[in-house]
Design a protein that fits this description.
By secondary structure, the chain is α/β, with parallel strands linked by helices. It is built from 10 helices and 10 strands. The strands form 2 sheets. A 7-stranded mixed β-sheet has the order 6-5-4-7-8-9-10. The protein has a 3-stranded antiparallel β-sheet with strand order 1-2-3. A hairpin with a 4-residue loop joins strand 1 and strand 2. 45% of the residues are buried.
């Protein structure tokens, strides 16, 4: 079950270190060299953290190992460390991710739900995670289900994944599943789907994920690291999307 996590961690070079780290109320952000990664912690902590020392200056790979923590605040720090490598502009471009050098790019252009509206027409579609406006985008064109940890009106509980995902044609999985360790099981349940997409700004743009049945990665590249850190710390009350670009990375 840990192999997907080990592959993400071991792909990070040993010489990368954590230069800056902010663990804010809404997200965590780590800068390593010219790359920054973000991740969203879940609303609750569980066990004590794995690492209890200052993480600044530590090897990025070691901090990335926190993704395996059952303390989900610490696990989000691990995801941010993973993304500080794979989602850095230099590494992402080398791996084949296409993005603009401009600071701001219209997010709708690379929104996975908008991009696939024609593909999913008449199909069985499940989204793990209640994303904004998702009902308006997909419900009118397909047989659509939302699966949520904290289900609202019309949502299915997370336990329904065992029944819904195996019969879906298209599956979209929130990147929060990396933090809470449900990703391996969700991918296994979705193996019959035509396309599987991991969605959210905390999605690692790591090609190794394509080895696990994933077809598309919808993630985020930070282009202004210092401002991303300030937003994470609460020094600026603006949305994170202004410091980078949403991207779509498809399996070749």
């Amino acid at each position: 079950m840990w192999k997907i996590y080990d592959d993400l961690i071991n792909g990070i070079p040993e010489n990368r270190i954590v230069d800056e780290l902010i663990c804010g109320k809404k997200r965590s952000c780590i800068r390593s060299g010219n790359g920054s990664g973000i991740a969203t912690p879940l609303k609750y902590e569980t066990r004590m953290p794995m690492l209890t020392k200052n993480l600044i200056g530590m090897p990025l790979r070691e901090v990335a190992s926190c993704v395996k923590s059952w303390n989900f605040v610490e696990a989000a720090i691990g995801v941010a460390a993973i993304n500080a490598y794979y989602n850095s502009p230099e590494v992402a471009r080398t791996n084949g991710v296409e993005f603009s050098d401009k600071m701001r790019v219209e997010d709708r252009r690379y929104d996975p739900f908008i991009m696939s509206q024609n593909d999913v027409k008449g199909k069985k579609v499940a989204v793990v995670g209640h994303f904004p406006y998702i009902e308006k985008l997909l419900a009118p064109v397909c047989d659509f289900s939302i699966i949520e940890r904290e289900p609202g009106d019309g949502d299915f509980p997370i336990s329904s994944s065992e029944y819904i995902l195996p019969v879906c044609d298209y599956v979209y999985i929130t990147c929060a599943s990396i933090v809470d360790k449900t990703l391996p099981r969700l991918l296994e349940l979705s193996k019959n789907a035509k396309r599987i997409t991991i969605v959210g700004p905390g999605t690692p743009l790591a090609p190794v994920l394509f080895n696990y049945g994933v077809n598309d990665l919808s993630g985020f590249i930070v282009k202004d690291s210092q401002r991303a850190l300030r937003i994470t710390a609460g020094a600026e009350n603006v949305k994170m999307h202004i410091v980078g670009q949403k991207v779509a990375f498809k399996k070749a």
